[in-house]
C-alpha cells in the first residue's frame, strides 16, 4: 500500500519541520511506481512527479501531521487537480437537448445511454428519448429496446433504415412532436479505430449539432484507451469522457492519462451493468483510487483545520518528558470532539474501520470522563499520582459517578500516557490501534 510505503520513506524526516530533497526523491520513486501500476502513461507519471517535487520541497510540515501523510496529501491534491479538480456536468441547452454517444464497440455506449436516460428521468424529471443508430447489428437495436423498457423510457428505431444520419434527424423531429426534452443517440462502434465508423459519427455530429458529444471508454483497456480517446477527439472534438467499468479491478489511471492527453473533462463513470450504476466523476475520489489509499487525505485536512500548531508543539515536549497530565488530557478530549464524529474520524485511518466494529466510540463517550476530571482539584490534575483511595471516593461523589469508573479512568489515563509517549517517539497510528485492542 502506497501510504505505508510513503510513511516508511519519510521516517528519516522525523523531527524535521520540512520536507527535504533527499527524502522526496525516494518517495517519488514509489509514487511513480504506483502511477505506472495504475496504468498512467510513463511520461505523464514522470512530469507529474517532477511537479510534486517542486511543490513538496520546503513545505512546512504541520506538527499534528506526519511528513509522510503531508506528502500523500500533496500528491493526492496534485492528482485531483490534474484530473480537472472539480466535477463537470453535461450541459443541456437546446430544446430538445441532444446527446451523442461515441466510442468503440463494447465500451459501454448502449448501457451508458440507458443509465443517463434513467438518471435524467428520475433526478431531473426529464422525459428522454433513446435513439438506436447502430444500424449494423440487429441485436444492438434489440439491446437498446430492452434497456428502454427496463427504465420506462421510449426508444426510437427504424428497423429497415441503414442511414444513421436520417434516423437521428427523424428521432429529433419525433421528440419535438411528442414532448421529449432530451434525445440520447446511441451509435455503432467498431472493435478498433476504423475510417468508416469515424466518418459516420462525424456525419451524425455535423447533421444534428448535439449539445453534448460524449466519448465512452472502457477503463479496463488501460493505455489503449488513451490512444482511442486521442483519435476520437481529433475527429469529433467531443465535450466529455465517460469512463465505464470502474467496478472492475482497474485502478483508474486511464482517467488521468486521458484527461491529460485530450484535455476534456471526465463527466461520469459507470460502475456496473445495472441502470443505476452511474456516478458523477469526482477527481478527488479518483485520486484516492489511483493512490490506493484510505481516506487519509480528509484526515489530514481535518487535522490541519483543528490542531493549533503551537499547542501541538507544547504537547510534544510534555509527552517526551512524560509530564502529560489530566489537564492535557482534557484539552485533547476537547480537540478530538472539535474534529467531529469520533467514529467517522477514526474510520478514515486505513485499517481502522474493521477494528472499530467492536469498539464503542459514541460522541458522548467522553461525558463521564470530563465530569470526573472536572471534579479533581488543580493539584490532582497536574499530578495524577496524588490521587489515592480517599481522593477517588471524593471525586466519584463529586462527579456523580462511582469509584469503579474513577479507577478505570485513572488506569486508562496511565495507559494513554504510555501510548502518547510511544507516538511522540515515532510510533504510528496503526500501532496505537493494535495496542488499544
Ligand atoms: P457498446 O457496444 O459500446 O454499446 O457497449 P455495451 O453497452 O453493449 O456494453 C458492453 C458490455 O459491457 C455489456 O456486457 C455491458 O453490460 C457491460 N458494461 C457496460 N458498462 C459497464 C460498467 O460500468 N460495468 C460493468 N461491469 N459492465 C459494464
Ligand atoms: Mg451498443
TrEMBL record:
GO molecular function terms attached to this record: 7S RNA binding; GTP binding; GTPase activity
Signal peptide range: none
Domain of life: Bacteria
Classification via Pfam families: SRP54, SRP54_N, SRP_SPB
SMART domains: AAA, SRP54, SRP54_N
SRP54-type proteins GTP-binding domain boundaries: 265-278
Record-listed E.C. numbers: 3.6.5.4
Cell compartment(s), UniProt: Cytoplasm
Binding site for GTP: 103-110, 186-190, 244-247
Physiological role: Involved in targeting and insertion of nascent membrane proteins into the cytoplasmic membrane. Binds to the hydrophobic signal sequence of the ribosome-nascent chain (RNC) as it emerges from the ribosomes. The SRP-RNC complex is then targeted to the cytoplasmic membrane where it interacts with the SRP receptor FtsY.
Family stated for the protein in its record: Belongs to the GTP-binding SRP family. SRP54 subfamily.
Domain topic, free-text comment: Composed of three domains: the N-terminal N domain, which is responsible for interactions with the ribosome, the central G domain, which binds GTP, and the C-terminal M domain, which binds the RNA and the signal sequence of the RNC.
Protein name: Signal recognition particle protein
